[in-house]
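User
New here, explain this?
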Amino acid sequence: MFEKLRKEVAVLLDRSELKTDIRLQQVCELLKNTVPHYDWVGFYFKNGDKEELKLGPYAGAPTDHTIIPFGKGICGQVAVSNQNFVVPDVKAQDNYIACSITVKAEIVVPLFINGENIGQIDIDSNTPDPFTEEDERFLEFVNREVATILA
């Protein structure tokens, strides 16, 4: 599944006639609609010079979490650590910001341009402990591809 998705993501992002936000939105929708355990897919980006993340394009239920301070929740922690964060059970996390009572697990992978963490892709799942190393490698690929259109 991920091998086929890699090609589809690359094709979507390569459509330079479309605005960047539209391409990112299409990637979110593709992932949410194709990967069974991806129930919410979105991008957060560093908000200018502020120590916070701002919600970008996403697919899934609307969220109140449009601004996330660095260090808060899984996304805020990744903004500080610059490391992937896989959460098999969100209830086991002290520093978790609940987006929905149905969310059971989350994965957040940072997005780098020239070595600087400028954002991340965030996936929520209503399935307990669904994320594997294959998800991590795939999402790292997605972010590398996204970085090429943002740079």
